[in-house]
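FAQ: What does the model actually see?

It sees only this:
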Amino acid sequence: MRHAWSRLGLRGRIALSIVAVVLAAVGLAILAVRREVGEVVGAVLLGGAIGLAAALVAGHLLDEAYSRQRQFVSDASHELRTPLTAIRGQLEVLARQPDPKPAEVQRVVGVALAEAGRLERLVEDLLMLARVDEEVPSHPVEISCGPFLRRLASGPGAEGITLGTVPGGSIEADPEQFTQVVRNLLANARRHAGPQGRVELSATAEGERLTVFVDDDGPGIPPPERERVFDRFQRSEASRARDSGGSGLGLAIARSIVERHGGRIWIEDSPLGGARVAFELDGFHPEVEHHPTRHHG
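And it is asked to produce this:
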């Protein structure tokens, strides 16, 4: 039975599902109405029409989901094939040389390691995106904003990142997912930074809403591209021209996580001259100031 169902294909399963939903609607209508024949016929027709409409909508949604999945697999295959092709090409060049010089071997090893690192990052991003799509439950806890952002701005791989103003207080968020968003934005900013490599992480708060900013001094992102770069496997024209090594998934992952937490993320001009990527979340609790108690003698 299971093999027969799998052989039907997506469209066959959709068609069979439509028939099943319509028959179920008809059966329920007959069971629910036990009075006059006219009422039964009317209920059957109405139930069948509703069931058919629901099935058609479900089929359309399944078809869209299938198309998106097929596009995603196609894009992922292309992105994975690129570093693999580069590695294979370099090894084939080396293999054609009967007695390659040490310098040439070192060059090929350097290219292969760089492409392998790119491949590893892409696989990690794909796994993270799969987790986000599966809507893995978040586990929000109280996070102290100052120490949390300071750690991300000074940890491994954070060379050249400065920490700007950060409000005192805490926010309720999943620390792993919050970290993923900030790290993705910092990595994106570092890839697009200008010759001076300036990247700044800062935050502001208004009421119960925290806004985090990641700024760089690079070429910026033109307004027409600012929404598109959040799509999967999409990069700005400047990024493609410079071949910055990004997978085109970092911003997509960040947006998915932020929106799942009820926030929003956007791009604007940066005070540093490049791009500013900002996101905001609810659940911020300002730091309560404690005043010393005065004792009157």
